[in-house]
Amino acid sequence: MVQTIYESFGYVIPETVLSVFFVLTLLTSLVGDRRSKYLPAYTALLGFAVTGAFVAGQIGMDQLVFSGMYAVDPFSWFFKVLFLVSGALIVLFSMQSRELDTASTKYAEYYSLIISLTIGAFFMAGASNLLMMYLSLELVSISSYILSGFTKENPRADEASLKYVIYGAFSSGLMLYGISILYGLTGELNIYALNQAFSSGALSQVSVLIAIVLMLAGLGYKISAVPFHFWTPDVYEGAPVTVTAFLSVTSKAAGFAMLIRFFKIGFIDIAAQPAVAGMWQIFHGLNWTDIIAVLSVLTMTLGNLVALWQTNMKRLLAYSSIAHAGYILMGFVTLTDQGISAMLMYFVAYLLMNLGAFYIVMLVANKYQTEDIDGYAGLGYRSPYAAFALTVFLFSLTGIPPTFGFIGKLYLFAALIKTNYIWLAIVGVLNSVVSLYYYVKVVRSMYLVTPADSTRVDFGFGTNLLMTVLMVPNIALMLYFTPVLNWAEHSVLMFGLH
Amino acid sequence: MTVHVGLTQFLVVSAILFSLGIFGVMTRKNAIMVLMGIELILNAANINFVAFTRFGLMNLSGQVTAVFVIILAAAEAAVLLAIVLNMFQQINTVNVDEVDKLKN
Hints:
The complex is a heterodimer of chains A (498) and B (104). Chain A is mostly helical and 498 residues long. Chain A has helices spanning 2-9, 13-27, 38-56, 74-96, 107-126, 130-148, 155-186, 191-200, 205-223, 231-238, 241-266, 288-307, 313-334, 337-368, 379-382, 384-398, 404-418, 422-448, 461-479, 482-490; strands spanning 63-65, 70-72. Chain A has a domain at 287-498. Chain A has a two-stranded antiparallel ribbon. In chain A, helix 11 (241-266) runs parallel beside helix 13 (313-334) and helix 13 runs antiparallel to helix 14. Chain A starts with a helix and ends in an 8-residue tail after the last helix. In chain B, helix 1 packs antiparallel against helix 2 and helix 2 (31-55) runs antiparallel to helix 3 (61-91). The A-B interface holds A 131, 134-135, 138, 142, 145-146, 149, 152-153, 155-156, 158-163, 165-166, 169-170, 173-174, 176-177, 179-181, 183-184, 187-189, 233-234, 237-238, 309-311, 315 and B 11, 18, 21, 25, 31, 34-35, 37-38, 41-42, 44-46, 48-49, 52, 56, 58-59, 61-62, 64-65, 68-69, 72, 75-76, 79-80, 83-84, 86-87, 90-91, 96, 99-104.
């Protein structure tokens, strides 16, 4: 036992390093000027860099550690890289945010919470035990409750965090009750053991159904899928922009990672190919993939339709992120390797375009003190480069050809067509067309509306550089996406599969 | 007459607590009452875990989970209370339905 634990520690070095840097970042508030944002920010960046080095050393590992609690496999490796990139970018964004300056004595806490959320996301990506899944989900949630209300003098942020904590605690409570039922039915918390229990087929179908619906409440809230999405617009609008961007990428990707692993490992005959044919007997009465397909359609349709009449940019991007959760769920409906790898590829695109769009929103809020779409009028004349970058990100979010977002959607639709979900692919395409309207509305406002005040506002070299760093892959990866495709295809491998 | 208390009795109590918890979250306006509803849900799950371990002749992981959940419930309550307290200082209310600035 002790030997197993000792050996397992070798596999969680990245998480350990992040935990150490969590403490170090917090301690920087004791050193020097409390109001300096640079010391904690650079400590956090260093933490992400060192963790990155250790994560790089884990490439190709395929191992279950801590008595089956935690999987270190190519699938979780993919998400760890994603979380590190997203975390580091958010730290860079936050250093420029004016909004956070209202809480300027608490920078150390802010950056350490970003690290703690990333630790939680790491564990979510690898959790292969129901208790571990619940704990890591809560680690992410509790960090994000505090982060979303971080500028606590701002009543809108307070409201965001209050709504978030109530919805979040409620949904994770439902999920825990679902876990307790699953435990009672099978006597197991490990998802590989759950798979064995389901394979016998001697369980009450109704009880399993109730448990799964309750589990979906917790997972669906994290990815903001439709019946559990109510918190998303309010929290995304009220929270500081940097936090919104972070939640929309890291927390959502972590939720998807957990969802995919839970269903892929727990519910499918691991040996069978194609995967759908391998559903255990017990699930034949209730057609899982169809339920998820309906969820996916509802999620993207609601997200896109409500986004049409938004006037606040953050709220618009909130509904857009709900819609994107719907697109990504489409890949999950297939349950095939091709579908999952399309989802993973879409996450790369989503990270680049969504973080980019939020970055520009933050910069505009810094300089022009506005988050309204009307405030973007004539941005193409006042800050041409930022306006151009935002146009690229918005086109990428729509999925228009010269951008990586197009490739992401293309592979999702290809996976659907291959598994004969043609109707779902058509709904997806129609939704993309609807989304074009509200994304282009912003672009139109930037270029076709003459501003009242057309003074040039430049953002400075560093900012433009960061914009370029986010913008170039959005276009370059469209032209040469083979490496991402290969990476995504290798990353569908979870421990115990194949 | 002696009443035998078995798994069923525990599960019934837990189901009642769970339903009361959901009812509390849905109907209460006061954020503190909502928190109490959430605590009821968590404790209902805890009763399930412990009862299943005790009567189901299973491994100990249910008991372990219950301990973890107690700790997490405390952490969650601390964060929620801090947020509510801050809310009260800022806009002088703890009622969830009066917090509606973020709406179209």
